[in-house]
Specification:
- The chain contains five helices and seven strands; from the N terminus they run βββααββαβαβα.
- With about 180 residues, the protein is an alpha/beta fold.
- The chain has a single domain, classed as 3-Layer(aba) Sandwich (Leucine Aminopeptidase, subunit E, domain 1).
- Strands 1-2-7-6-3-5-4 form a seven-stranded mixed beta sheet, sandwiched between helices.
- α4 links the parallel β6 and β7.
- The longest helix is centred in the middle third of the chain and has 20 residues.
- The relative contact order is 0.21.
- Bound molecules: adenosine-5'-diphosphate.
- Adenosine-5'-diphosphate (ADP) binds next to α1.
Length: about 180
């Protein structure tokens, strides 16, 4: 499914984000930036060791205590098709989706897009941040993700294409419902 807002195309698709050919892909990282499971593990495995080396440098130089939730940093894409990986940290959700969790998830998307803009990136792919190991409810997380992206493109017309690359049909359907409800 795709829609166009303010000249930016938003695309929802089922797929593996490590295969995407957008200029940047976003990693649902954890604050250590040292890799992990899920999409994080897949990106490091396919992208190769240079991404981890750059993450280590970022930790040493800028975030010795780890990347705070809702913030984003950028590395090159290593062996991936994408030129860049933007690493962001979503919230770990409680059973409810609290206002604080929602705000932090919103920030993760919004700050990733701000960083993409600073780098002149025109196309970017997001996974469904925080809805795996971090257990946020997919329907609510989808609404927050889309809201952040749409708020951004209503203000900024720099990015031409934003893809949500959802790993399963089930998650894709929830994002589709959320987009139809906006
Ligand atoms: P988090 O810790 O932020 O919850 P996870 O990686 O555990 O991150 O899960 C986030 C989402 O990413 C889940 O919907 C999961 O199914 C999905 N996912 C896992 N691997 C990939 C991949 N290669 N491409 C796209 N999405 C993926």
């Amino acid at each position: 499914m795709e829609i166009k807002i303010n000249g930016t195309k938003i695309i929802l698709k089922v797929g593996d984000i490590t295969e995407e050919d957008t200029q940047a892909i976003v990693n649902a990282a954890n604050s250590t930036l040292m890799g992990g499971g899920g999409v994080d593990g897949a990106i490091h495995a396919k992208g190769g060791p240079s991404i981890l080396e750059e993450c280590k440098k970022i930790r040493e130089e800028k975030y010795p205590d780890g990347l705070p939730t809702g913030e984003a940093v950028i590395t090159t894409g290593g062996n991936l098709k994408a030129d860049y990986v933007i690493h962001t940290v979503g919230p770990i959700c409680s059973r409810k989706f609290t206002e604080r969790e929602e705000k932090l998830l919103y920030n993760a998307y919004y700050n990733s897009l701000k960083l993409a803009k600073e780098k002149g990136i025109k196309s970017i792919s997001f996974p469904s941040i925080s809805t795996g190991a971090y257990r946020c409810p997919v329907d609510k997380a989808a609404r927050t993700a889309l809201k952040a992206v749409i708020d951004f493109i209503k203000k900024e017309d720099c990015i031409q294409q934003i893809r949500f690359v959802l790993f399963t049909q089930d998650v894709y359907e929830k994002y589709k419902e959320a987009l139809n409800g906006i």
